[in-house]
Amino acid sequence: MPENEQTTPRLRDLGITIGTLPTGTHNAVTDVPGVRIGHSTIVEGDAVRTGVTAVHPLEGSAFSEMPPAAIQILNGAGEITGRSQVDEYGLLESPILITNTLSVGTAHRGCIEWMRQQEPTLGPIHFSIPVVAETYDGFLNDIGGQHVTIEHVFDALDSATGGPVAEGNVGGGTGMMLFGFKGGIGTSSRLVTVEDREYTVGVLVQGNFGIREHLLVDGVPVGREITDLRLFRAPQQEMPARDGSIIVVIATDAPLSDRQLARLCRRGMLGLGQVGSTATHGSGDLLVAFSNAPECRVNRFDTSAVLTTPRLDDRRLDPFFQATVEAIAESVLNALVAAEDMTGRDGNRAHALPHDRLREIMRKYGRL
Amino acid sequence: MPENEQTTPRLRDLGITIGTLPTGTHNAVTDVPGVRIGHSTIVEGDAVRTGVTAVHPLEGSAFSEMPPAAIQILNGAGEITGRSQVDEYGLLESPILITNTLSVGTAHRGCIEWMRQQEPTLGPIHFSIPVVAETYDGFLNDIGGQHVTIEHVFDALDSATGGPVAEGNVGGGTGMMLFGFKGGIGTSSRLVTVEDREYTVGVLVQGNFGIREHLLVDGVPVGREITDLRLFRAPQQEMPARDGSIIVVIATDAPLSDRQLARLCRRGMLGLGQVGSTATHGSGDLLVAFSNAPECRVNRFDTSAVLTTPRLDDRRLDPFFQATVEAIAESVLNALVAAEDMTGRDGNRAHALPHDRLREIMRKYGRL
Amino acid sequence: MPENEQTTPRLRDLGITIGTLPTGTHNAVTDVPGVRIGHSTIVEGDAVRTGVTAVHPLEGSAFSEMPPAAIQILNGAGEITGRSQVDEYGLLESPILITNTLSVGTAHRGCIEWMRQQEPTLGPIHFSIPVVAETYDGFLNDIGGQHVTIEHVFDALDSATGGPVAEGNVGGGTGMMLFGFKGGIGTSSRLVTVEDREYTVGVLVQGNFGIREHLLVDGVPVGREITDLRLFRAPQQEMPARDGSIIVVIATDAPLSDRQLARLCRRGMLGLGQVGSTATHGSGDLLVAFSNAPECRVNRFDTSAVLTTPRLDDRRLDPFFQATVEAIAESVLNALVAAEDMTGRDGNRAHALPHDRLREIMRKYGRL
Amino acid sequence: MPENEQTTPRLRDLGITIGTLPTGTHNAVTDVPGVRIGHSTIVEGDAVRTGVTAVHPLEGSAFSEMPPAAIQILNGAGEITGRSQVDEYGLLESPILITNTLSVGTAHRGCIEWMRQQEPTLGPIHFSIPVVAETYDGFLNDIGGQHVTIEHVFDALDSATGGPVAEGNVGGGTGMMLFGFKGGIGTSSRLVTVEDREYTVGVLVQGNFGIREHLLVDGVPVGREITDLRLFRAPQQEMPARDGSIIVVIATDAPLSDRQLARLCRRGMLGLGQVGSTATHGSGDLLVAFSNAPECRVNRFDTSAVLTTPRLDDRRLDPFFQATVEAIAESVLNALVAAEDMTGRDGNRAHALPHDRLREIMRKYGRL
Predict the structure, then answer these.
(1) Mean pLDDT of the region C164-185
(2) What letter would DSSP give residue A22?
(3) Whole-number Å distance between alpha carbons of C176 and A233
(4) Does B76 contact C89 at a Cβ distance shorter than 8 Å?
(5) Least confident of A246-260, B166-180, C42-56, C118-132
(6) How many CB atoms within 10 Å of residue D193?
(7) Catalytic residue check, A84
(8) pTM above the 0.95 mark?
(9) Residues B256, B260, B261, B264: is their CA dihedral positive or negative?
(10) Of A151, A211, C329, D146, which sees the most CB atoms within 10 A?
(11) Nearest residue in chain A measured CA to CA from C264
């Protein structure tokens, strides 16, 4: 079975729905045509629990056909490379890679090498500034061991497909945690119709944040209701100093400018607020958004002086803001629902959120 | 009875509590020692429904003893003057005024004139850049009529006191709306203890935003449950194009630097997300924060070369982030609970949120 | 003779040229078709030396046809209102007004009232956030006396014309100073050709900054060569604490997006660096740029869902960057050359830069 | 002879001085006590012309004793990692590495591995986000060949010393170009006295930008005077699409906060403007500043709740702004003067700026 296939349950399988907008076919970031996701999951022995997740923003080469993009930082305790250039040009020019904190360099190098295979001019004539983001998996993973290799990066990039997206303990999310439960990769999507034209907003998160007591599921204080199932930490071991992070990738096929995509990113905090984030000090809450609408891309090899591109009138954006908020909240909860118990380095252990207890609590609060 | 006295009910009077941190004495921004609030409420005839709210950040003169401050913009469709200088210096040097969109000029001029009465050097030797913010009350108020005068500005500044703070249809909040109900001014506070030292985070909002269906009270979808009590708009009248805004003032006596205060501001989106904001296109979601800890202020007339000021270690900020999120959410809900039905220009009308139905819905969702 | 007519000499009249790009017809911001400038100059008795300058960005109403725009802050010790909304929407929706520091409120109020005369929907249906900027003229002007009235604001807005632009001691620049000489309003323009299509970049500055020793004219250290002609300050008087500021307005008819206009603004520092700015602590170095290309504007009353607008490919921007740098540097020097000796409040006095000595120094350094 | 020793001539050796402030002992960034610079220069065969430069911000470990820091972007067409965290925390927590565009990943990985050797808790308990910056050397260097290895990174970090700093074709600057001449590494410093206390501002640049015609030396249009000595490009070869970049590191021992250090960075544009930068589209003009004043650092392992740190009053910063402007301009010119002719990949060639002609031009313009 190929890795990138949905086999874990999802929030909606438990009867829980976030928001009111309809989802795309797969309720996944890949509902945006052309977006492809690849995971390289690295689980070896007792201590290696990490990986890489690759996001191809469009069906061809983002190096050649650069989509409008924006990066916004809600709390900056993390890394997302490429930010200065995305700010300046309003364009993405590489796939997006997500991995662990100490493997940013390897993912960056791997991305350059992979792109050079496709693009012979990268180096002697052109250059590219890749977008690589990270969260910290050092509680479950031997992060100092640098187990992500360039081959894993190639594997994530080469195996990427559309359709259903594997969630939970996969790719860059392999060793991540959410609200003191096991976390990881999650995804969701929403459809927005503007004058008979249907657009998709898709979100993928690598979720690794949250304080147990703050967890909200559709407004229900689930975290306060589940006081057991805490992280198990090996005796005599110091707790990692970092309390979490989340990388959010927002994709759309709606024609939006880089300024408008930045507006979408800034709604990320609203979505995270709805699941109970307080954006703690050590959390890198980093968002990147792109529009792969073909008519909005900039062709690197086109020498026309004037580009004429469409964009939605800003006064039409409210449903896209709502879609972004809903899809981010549901992506985090999908990561939480998909993730499975994991024991990692030194016997450290994180529990999955138990589905039956979640349903029971939702019933108690009048939601099921 | 002086205007600035609490006579309207509050969220906690209905048995509803937001979050888990304790509040200050008055559950108001004035729990931060030295902070004083003044309202000038202007209700005249059928069409004038507006006002000014003044926030004195400390007991003396902010012109002389400038407190560390920060301004952050979540959605910029509004005005907060003084932002460039607050960014550059990290200091506030005036009271903060909040009024309607078209009265920013009058409030600015009034603030300068009021400060000149206190500070003879303002003008010939020194200058000051005041902080004036606004939301739009043109649905209920004849906003084009410019009914705010310099006297109203002086009145708000001069009448300011500590202690309980009037909420709802008062001051700058007089003609404002929230989630399709009547809105206005709201306030709340939280206490944070760090190594036996207790600090206060106080919030005041002028709330004028929100889509009915999105309203959440402690996670309960109250807006979806109350489908009647809509705004009444006079026949043949066009609806105002602006859908809302919120001004948030965050005060604390904890020793925090301007960078740290900006971090507090950025948590505002989380608090707004918890009550159901999607930060719509036309919403000016603007936040200003200051610390009036005496040892953090900069004295304008002191010529020492080196300032030595304390600040909390950033790793101690998480409870302050939580306090900010909770106090913002509760301030918005306090504004909603305090506001009363209002009929304004052309017979336009907004209903108050009915308290009995709110309690009934909270019971239905297992919260009361 | 109408006020807005060029009667003072200019840098090029002295044989000095900045940069290599050609200028427009008038070497003025008004070379950008549609841009109109109006000055209201207020000189009364011994102590009133101030005014207002108005910039209409296009031939019609910026309220109805909003041009792409950007604001950038190089040193934020000053005020430019409207910044948050320009950031968020990337649009200008009012004329731009420039006045003294304490008259921002009056100019703001005046702008709203003037616009309401043109736009009956402003207030009941629409709102507008004007752009008002300032520099400090308290050395020569009785700034605390608030001598700018709403009538002066109307006068500047109503008298605006295209063609030659009065420079030096006019409008908002009346009481301003540059490098310890008299300063004020200056303007310049450059032409850029892209594939046979000619575009104009025009600049207008209200210049009020600089340390004598730092003044550079085309790289020549003129400030170090003129050690006399210092400001005369009345005995026993304290010097104002603020050391300067500059407001820069950049206009173009090239099709540029708000992101690209922000890039132009950021080149402002390069132009200021070339005349010797060190952007001192108290200097508000604030820039606003707009493109009034008709096909780039957003019509407020148009309800189309999709806007299709042209923009130059970013890789074509380098000559625009150079044009901006050159035109800013020349605008500052034009203000300096046009300004005339002025005695103001309490007998304080600023000298004009003497043209003969400037020419002599340029000769000494091999430039004439 | 150790690599990091000054053997090439400097601007002042030619009798040319920039600005008026005094320099430190070595007129180098290392005049700031504790700052150490290491170069790994990689010149192999006909085509390898690259390297790595390391900046240690203080004598001990920046991981343990984090100095206040800021990053600012003047034109963002480049990479500087770590920016989000430096923005959020206002602290640096690693050495700074500068290399070529495609070696950012290797330098990042190398930095992490080097730090892990010093800091056993990096990984299992703590994490670190390194600062790695780049400019593009693909005209002279086989940049796609990835000739920078982790060993080179270690070499640069381990060989770092105080004292004189090698300039020109060394370290990360090995294959870089300035104004169509050979460029590379340059450094300079200035002393500022505040109330009898002397502070140092030191700058190091990796300079790789500029259009020949724009080059200014102390205001003299040297670039327009030297029209020959152009880059030689191998026949049939396409010119690289990127036109330059500059990385600026600003160090000081003055007690400055992160906000104040950002103010220093923003003066970078003024210094670059004085040597003729127009900040072209493809230029990554990125600046990082830090203060290593011991009393301003944050100790990672200290658990005190309150930090009490000094900073200079902002009103004392003007000489620091001037020092920064002067030292940046002189650093760029030092890089230009130190660099030597270089032939690289495919026979591409860049000439050094000829010293005799520079002196001759300066004489012609009355400067020598």
Answers:
(1) 98
(2) P
(3) 67
(4) yes
(5) C118-132
(6) 11
(7) no
(8) yes
(9) negative
(10) C329
(11) A88
E strands, chain A, where? 36-44, 48-56, 65-66, 69-76, 96-100, 131-135, 177-178, 181-182, 184-194, 197-208, 245-252, 284-291, 298-299, 306-312, 342-343, 349-350
**Which whole-number Å values give the CA distances from D217 to A318, C250, D74, D285, in the listed order?**
53, 28, 21, 19
Burial A239-249 (b: 16+ CB within 10 A, else e): ebebbbbbbbb
Hey, what amino acid is at B121?
A: T
Q: How far apart are CA D237 and CA D64, in angstroms?
A: 48
Distance of residue D174 Cα from the nearest chain C Cα, in angstroms: 26
Over its C-alpha atoms, chain A yields an Rg (Å, rounded) of 19
pLDDT tens across D30-47, in order? Answer: 999 999 999 999 999 999
Residue C102 and residue B123: Cβ atoms within 8 Å? yes
Q: Write the Ramachandran bin of B110: left for phi over 0, alpha for psi from -120 to 50, otherwise beta.
A: alpha
What are D63's two structure tokens?
A: 């991981």
B283 is catalytic: yes
In whole angstroms, what separates CA C90 from the centre of its chain?
20
* CB pairs < 8 Å spanning A and B: 91
- Asked if A295 and C310 touch (Cβ cutoff 8 Å), the reply is no
Of all residues in chain C, what percent are helix, strand and coil, respectively (each to 5)? 30, 30, 40
Residue C163, min C-alpha distance to chain D (Å): 29
User: For A202, phi and psi rounded to 5 degrees?
Assistant: -115, 145
Angle, helices A318-338/A268-275, rounded to nearest 10 degrees? 40
Nearest to A110 by CA among A160, A79, A150: A150
- The single residue listed with the structure tokens 């993009």 is A69
* Chains in contact with B, where contact requires at least 3 CB pairs less than 8 Å apart: A, C, D
* Residue D151 neighbours by CB under 8 Å, 6+ apart: none
Other Cβ atoms closer than 10 A to D268: 26
pLDDT at residue number B1: 41
Q: Report percent pLDDT > 90 for chain D.
A: 94
Q: Whole-angstrom Cα distance, residue D171 to residue D37? A: 10
Q: Tokens at residue A238, please?
A: 């110091």
Q: Do A322 and B278 touch (CB under 8 A)?
A: yes
By C-alpha distance, which of B49, B2, B31 is closest to B342? B49
Domains of chain B: 11-364 (3.60.70.12)
The alpha-carbon radius of gyration of chain C (Å, integer) is: 19
Write out the two tokens for A39: 């995971």
Active site (annotated) includes residue B302: no
The secondary structure of B319-368 as a DSSP string is: HHHHHHHHHHHHHHHHHHHH---EE-GGG-EEPPPPHHHHHHHHHHTT--
- For residue D83, the chain A residue with the least C-alpha distance is A79
Helix (H) or strand (E) holding B198: strand B197-208
Burial class (CB in 10 A: 0-12, 13-18, 19+), C354: middle
Give B317's contacts (C-beta < 8 A, 6+ positions apart): A281, B260, B263, B264
Classified as helix, coil or strand, D105 is: helix
Please state the length of chain A.
Answer: 368
C-chain residue closest to B143, CA distance: C123
CB contact under 8 A, D112 and A105: yes
Distance CA A139, CA A197 (A): 46
Measured at the CA of B316, the angle between CA B315 and CA B319, to 5 degrees, comes to 125
Segment A192-205 mean pLDDT: 98
- The candidate with the shortest Cα–Cα distance to C207, out of C163, C231, C171, is C171
The SS3 of residue D41 is strand
In Å, how far is A180's CA from the nearest CA of chain B?
16
ipTM over 0.90: yes
User: What span, in angstroms and rounded, lies between the C-alpha atoms of B73 and B75?
Assistant: 6
